[in-house]
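Data card: per-record layout.
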Amino acid sequence: MFRKTQHNRVFQDLVDQIQAAILDGRLKPGDKLPSQRDLVDMFQTSRASIREALRVLEQKGLIEVKLGVSGGAVIKTAGTESITADLTLLMQQQQVSFDHLAEFRESIEGDVAAMAALKAAPSDIARLEDILVQAEACLNGDDHTPYDFIRMDIRLHIALAEITGNPVFVAVMKMIHETVLGFYDRFTFRRRAVLEENYRDLGAIVAAVKAGRSEEAKKLALSHVGRFNRHMKNASHGPEAPSPSNRATPKN
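The structure for this 252-residue chain is written out next.
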């Protein structure tokens, strides 16, 4: 699978070869790389170069290095975690503002809802309606927190993206909503009225998607996103401006 490294670029050559094997499917998620000792023999290079290559591959999110006797480097399923972390860092460094994020959301979420309305199968509608039922329970149940409702809110947005059948939409929506979660955490958790408003918006969007009314679904989604953005902009003028938090992201 691998060839001997070129001496003038050992470290990068290691990364390139292993990455290529992952991307072309020779190495699949869950596969385990050979031990560092075996990799040294296979590549005819030093253990230091192997360790550096594994470190870079882990930073790229391509592998996970597990410790212990049964540990080692395992191929990961591609995810949005590293992209989300980079976007959050850019926002914290003020290189990307909330206005930038809001503008991007308004450019994509309407189209996602419209496409979902055109492509949704009965099983997709059943899934959306089930998420709505769970969202209502989170909103009104004594044993739920506002955070539980937000988890359902995000799950519904990602479900709409999944209905489109476009993995790019899914990846982008996950990244955006994982980042936006920090703003929910700082502001909307304190405002039940905002959560109730969100629930009504989500119900209207699902109804439009169920009826196959793509333009209506698009307008409702844009209105929903625009209202959220206005809440955040108003909050930013308060005593404590919103910024992304470090709260763990809810799983979809």
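Known properties of this structure: The domain at 81-236 is CATH 1.20.120.530 (Four Helix Bundle (Hemerythrin (Met), subunit A)). Residues 239-252 have pLDDT under 50 and may be disordered.

See the next section for split statistics.
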